[in-house]
């Protein structure tokens, strides 16, 4: 058993190069959390997180804004650390089980406006969970990340990819020239953010009109390109609606529009079209629908499977690695493919995601695993952030021709995600 003796929490405010538009809003800065856990024999595990208040719960972002919303999430992380002091665990999954319920209860009390979305508390717990895996790694220094995973979860992780398709994000503000550049750079899966509020008045018809026009604009750019890595030889579209459609009608209208413009066959997956309280069957739709924000645990995953969802976006960087493993195991039991989505993660956290994405069977229509990574597009100081990586010269860190290449060294060293970074260790300040 590992017993937590000391804890530390810091944060870094990382500016974005330009406002990043999604979920009907924009962000221009993201707070990076840094947690250190020290056990009773002196081992230390450092864990990182990226706070995304707008993604985790748009109501908090709308009511409290950027500063107060981020301070609130930091307070949840601090509360979880206080609860973890003196706790013992065998695996990080055990620790998360002990912290998640209390963190949600604390968050709801402090919010005072009813129940927060579960993703908000999970987002706050990511650096704690990451640090717990780091501590486990210190106890087993010769083990890879895969070898640290409890055996009954490994059955979901049957792949060992030497390449991962890297999907960048096409956010609201990106121009046609920006999209052309992504394709010129070799990216072949485009994550297209839909659900814009073009006039800021919440009009759903304007939203849908904007979405259709946006998809048509991108399709006109991409339709003439070929691709050797997809089943149909074409650029693939990954539509992320972020729960912005209130029901089935706008989704059906979007699908009809996609069919008319010739884009329907290019859609690899449609992610999270509805708010999580909308329980609509998607089994008969001609597109694969993936759950993301609506899936907080195994029970939610099973509910979405029963509604006909055909994939899950796993987010170790947003909902903890431990919970992502639980969801992956549930999905695998029903033959549901998974992939890893981003949260504008730092270079270390992208490699945290890669450790899971590298082991997941590919989505139908792709010849390799899939991972979203948009930090390089969005952070102003991305190159400086890369220098803080435990293995800054790793050949797997940057995508080339739209892919991350995973050599044996990536697997042997777990992509550096469990390694020690002098910068983050110094920032934690535990002695």
Q: Report the count of strand segments.
A: 14
- How far the N terminus sits from the C terminus, by CA atoms, comes to 22 Å
CATH superfamily of the largest domain: Enolase-like C-terminal domain
What portion of residues belong to β-strands? 15-25%
DSSP helix count? 17
Contiguous runs where pLDDT drops below 50 for at least 5 residues: none
Query: What is the CA-atom radius of gyration, in angstroms?
Result: 20 Å
- Sketch the major β-sheet: 7 strands, parallel
Assign an overall shape. globular
Question: What would you say about this model in short?
Answer:
This protein has 17 helices and 14 strands. It is α/β, with parallel strands linked by helices and 431 residues long. Helices cover 42% and strands 19% of the residues.
What order do the helices and strands come in, and which of them pair?
Layout: E1 2-22, E2 25-39, E3 44-50, H1 53-56, H2 58-84, E4 88-89, H3 92-111, H4 118-139, H5 145-148, H6 151-154, E5 163-167, E6 169-170, H7 176-184, E7 189-193, H8 204-222, E8 236-240, H9 248-261, E9 267-271, E10 289-291, H10 298-306, E11 311-314, H11 316-319, H12 321-333, E12 338-340, H13 347-357, E13 369-372, H14 375-378, H15 382-387, E14 403-405, H16 408-412, H17 422-428
Parallel strand pairs: 5-13, 6-7, 7-8, 8-9, 9-10, 10-11, 11-12
Antiparallel strand pairs: 1-2, 1-4, 2-3, 5-14
Helix pairs in contact: 2-3, 2-4, 3-4, 7-8, 8-9, 10-12
């Amino acid at each position: 058993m590992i017993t937590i003796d000391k804890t530390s929490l810091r944060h870094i405010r990382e500016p974005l190069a330009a406002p990043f538009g999604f979920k009907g809003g924009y962000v221009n800065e993201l707070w990076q959390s840094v947690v250190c856990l020290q056990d009773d024999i002196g081992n230390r595990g450092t864990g990182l997180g990226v706070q995304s208040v707008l993604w985790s719960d748009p109501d908090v972002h709308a009511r409290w804004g950027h500063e107060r919303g981020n301070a609130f999430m930091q307070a949840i992380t601090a509360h979880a650390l206080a609860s973890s002091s003196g706790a013992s665990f065998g695996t990080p999954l055990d620790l998360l089980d002990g912290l998640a319920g209390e963190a949600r209860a604390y968050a709801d009390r402090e919010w005072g406006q009813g129940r927060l979305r579960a993703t908000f508390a999970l987002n706050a717990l990511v650096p704690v969970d990451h640090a717990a895996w780091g501590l486990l790694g210190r106890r087993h220094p010769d083990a890879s990340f895969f070898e640290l995973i409890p055996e009954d979860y490994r059955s979901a992780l049957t792949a060992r990819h030497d390449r991962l398709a890297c999907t960048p994000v096409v956010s609201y503000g990106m121009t046609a020239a920006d999209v052309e550049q992504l394709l010129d750079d070799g990216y072949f899966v485009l994550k297209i953010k839909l659900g814009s509020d073009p006039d800021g008045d919440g009009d759903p018809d304007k939203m849908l009109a904007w979405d259709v026009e946006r998809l048509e604009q991108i399709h006109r750019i991409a339709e003439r390109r070929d691709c050797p890595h997809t089943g149909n030889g074409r650029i693939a579209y990954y539509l992320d609606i972020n729960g912005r459609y209130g029901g089935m009608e706008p989704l059906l209208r979007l699908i009809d529009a996609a069919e008319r413009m010739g884009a329907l066959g290019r859609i690899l997956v449609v992610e999270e079209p509805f708010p999580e309280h909308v329980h609509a069957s998607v089994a008969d739709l001609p597109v694969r629908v993936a759950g993301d924000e609506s899936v907080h645990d195994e029970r939610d995953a099973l509910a979405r499977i029963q509604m006909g969802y055909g994939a899950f976006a796993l987010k170790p960087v947003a909902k903890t690695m431990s919970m992502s493993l639980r969801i992956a195991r549930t999905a695998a039991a029903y033959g549901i493919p998974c992939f890893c989505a981003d949260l504008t993660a730092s270079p270390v956290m992208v490699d945290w995601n890669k450790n899971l994405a590298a082991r997941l069977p590919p989505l139908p229509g792709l010849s390799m695993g899939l991972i979203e990574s948009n930090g390089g597009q969005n952070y102003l100081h991305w190159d400086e952030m890369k220098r803080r990586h435990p293995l800054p010269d790793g050949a797997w860190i940057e995508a080339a021709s739209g892919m991350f290449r995973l050599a044996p060294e990536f697997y042997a060293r777990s992509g550096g995600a469990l390694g020690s970074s002098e910068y983050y260790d110094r920032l934690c300040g535990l002695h």
